[in-house]
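As a warm-up, study this chain.
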Amino acid sequence: MKNKEIKILLSAPRGFCAGVERAIEIVEKAIKKYGVPVYVRHEIVHNKFVVDDLKKKGAIFVEELEEIKDKTRPVIFSAHGVPKKVPSDAESYKMTYVDATCPLVSKVHREAENLHKSGYHLILIGHQNHPEVVGTMGQLPEGSIDLIQDEDEAKKYEFKEKKKLAYVTQTTLSVDDTRSIISILKDRFPSIREPHKEDICYATTNRQMAVKNIAKNCDVFFVIGSRNSSNSVRLVEVAKKSGCNNAHLIHSQSEIPYDLIEKSNTVGISSGASAPEILVENFIENLKKKFTVSIDEVEIIKENVVFKVPKKLN
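Now compare it with the structure written out below.
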């Protein structure tokens, strides 16, 4: 029997962003410069394949500096950013550290600090307990920044202080959801100050636009990425909202739902900003074993952003 024919619409841009590429390069260069082991505080990026690969090369992942027995070894801070307390703890331990925080997250940190110094009370739009949110809130003294996660919280938010109000956002949010939260805050607090330039990063925005562009033409949509990757989970939501209800995250433990694909003619594929392209290639190779596949890559914008690694590693 002839294999069923399916058409794959491959979303572009997808996969690694400049901040993720830089963070991985920082770990690899640190291993080359300092030898092994090199410690990394928190997953450098949210992807099991990447983390496992770096472990093989000599990286040891910890959640807190206290877990590092040998404080003479260097430690790297993940791309998501860290609270101020972490580098100052590293200094008190006399540890060598390299900060792999994405420059676009660092921009939000500086923005929050400057607004705080200018007398603003801050709102951070983001997801509780996400390392990026923990890092951004940890730039400021306790009580000077409040977290709002959704429209409901924006409607209920009470601000009784005499201070001026400003907001910043996590870099990996859904562009549309964030827009509606901001519009509620602006309605309620007309003089709220917004960032000079939107905080949601270019890569998150581009990947969401690319998924929106093709989701409505797909019977089923797959996003390759990790369950704890905020931007990957958002892509699944964007696909659903853009007309493909049948959207799924494919992570390291996922079984490929062949029966679902069997019932589909057009399959959409994208990947989160921390998912390496090899995972997309492997996924497509698996589909080729069971189906006759044609691939149409739909690119909406070319990305040419590159972030340099810290000088001390060159």
